[in-house]
Design a protein that fits this description.
Elements: H1 2-33, H2 41-55, H3 58-65, H4 72-90, H5 94-97, H6 100-124, H7 130-165, E1 170-171, E2 179-180, H8 182-211, H9 214-221
Antiparallel strand pairs: 1-2
Length: 222
């Protein structure tokens, strides 16, 4: 409906503005301070990044109520991966926030989302540019595996701090005698991360074929 299409346009516009601010901030800080700016990336843009990622949870609801025709499982996996790494791994360990991998991870996320929300926003009003369409459905295939590697590296970097501080580890007293050692949970999650990557990459190839097929390319050119 017109109302839902307008709502999705506003949602994409909000995400576009947020990620544009992040991208501009990262570029200006790097041009001004060089590599010194990498260590405090989280402190300078972390709040806006967290807001954008929390807002992206709405995309799961969009799929569930039918206003977004994307497949649920790949989108759910991608959103939960970011939420877990950002809020559970990075946000909870101040020592990890200053690592260069956080800057790399934020740059990859931001670049992917900036292209995706630009494409979605224009598509809502019936505007399709073939170069942007190609970039939207091709760049993710290249950059998403790199972002998974960056997530895995961030988790590995965080493990010594979770072991030292005991963050999120739970040990219940008798008679329960039950404990959860959170570093083991993160190590098991690494396996889930790479299995999920296979599912998401397959979905990316499927979407690319659907939107960049010969017939679709001709339609967009015309």
């Amino acid at each position: 409906s017109f109302t839902m299409n307008r709502y999705q346009f506003v949602y994409d516009l909000m995400q576009f503005c947020g990620h544009s601010w992040i991208f501009t901030n990262m570029v200006i800080r790097f041009m001004t301070f060089g590599t010194d700016s990498l260590a405090d990336t989280f402190y300078s843009i972390g709040l806006v990044m967290r807001l954008c990622q929390l807002l992206s949870v709405l995309e799961i609801l969009h799929i569930l109520i039918g206003i977004d025709k994307s497949r649920l499982l790949p989108r759910f996996l991608q959103i939960t991966e970011r939420i877990i790494v950002l809020f559970v791994v990075i946000n909870s360990q101040e020592e990890v926030q200053g690592k260069y991998v956080v800057c790399v991870l934020f740059f990859l996320w931001n670049l992917l989302d900036l292209v995706r929300y630009t494409y979605n926003m224009l598509a809502r009003v019936g505007i399709y540019y073939l170069p942007l369409t190609w970039l939207n459905f091709s760049l993710c295939i290249l950059l998403y595996p790199l972002s998974v590697l960056a997530k895995a590296f961030a988790i590995c970097v965080s493990l010594p701090y979770f072991e030292s501080f005991g963050t999120y580890s739970i040990k219940l007293p008798l008679p329960f005698a039950f404990s959860i050692y959170f570093p083991y949970v993160l190590k098991m999650y690494l396996l889930v991360l790479f299995v999920g990557m296979w599912c998401i990459i397959q979905n990316y190839f499927s979407e690319r074929k659907a939107h960049l097929g010969t017939g679709n390319i001709k339609n967009q050119r015309s």
